[in-house]
Amino acid sequence: MKILLHFCCANCALYPLQKLHKEGHEIFGFFYNPNIHPYEEYKKRLEAVKEIEKKLTIRTIYQNHYDLEDFLRSIVFRESDRCKICYHTRLAATARIAKKGKFDAFTSTLLGSKHQNHELIKEIGLATGKQRGINFFYADFREGWAEGREMSHKLGLYRQQYCGCIYSEKERFLKK
After folding, report:
1. Which residue, 7, 19, 62, 95, has most beta carbons within 10 Å?
2. What digits encode the pLDDT tens for the residues 94-152?
3. pTM above 0.85, yes or no
4. Are 165 and 61 in contact (CB under 8 A)?
5. What angle do CA 117, 112, 58 make, to 5 degrees?
6. What is the C-alpha radius of gyration for the chain, rounded to an integer number of angstroms?
7. CATH annotation of 2-174
8. Using CB atoms within 10 A of its CB, is residue 118 exposed (0-12), middle (13-18) or buried (19+)?
9. Element (H or E) spanning 5, and its range?
């Protein structure tokens, strides 16, 4: 199956790439993350994805425009729904590219993070796929979270400390 895999970051991509490859799927990456703030953080994550693209020879599509302003406009005054809006924004873009590129399905590395709302990602992915006429490939990649983390260390990849949005960055510092 030809699958477009949305990359939230390089670290979360490692286990899903390995698992899907072992299952015999043809995988293409897609980097689109308008939620990441500040821009320096965005660039670090982008560079880490480019590193795994080279090291693992993964064909990757990049959304070249940094859409932070549009993302912030979509969540302002709806902060309690920010994760839902963020997941939808990224999964809808992935589904659109998958449909246009004649992929069999799309999925996301967000499904591999133990820090994200897994059920909400699954729900939005399935609904978005149905709406866009493209299959959402559901897999619980959390089973390989520790393995992916270990692979990340071995490859010397940049490891972020928060999901990416300005709100999670604030929460990260307030917890200390």
Report:
1. 7
2. 999 999 999 999 999 999 998 899 999 999 999 999 999 999 999 999 999 999 999 99
3. yes
4. no
5. 135
6. 15
7. 3.40.50.620
8. middle
9. strand 2-7
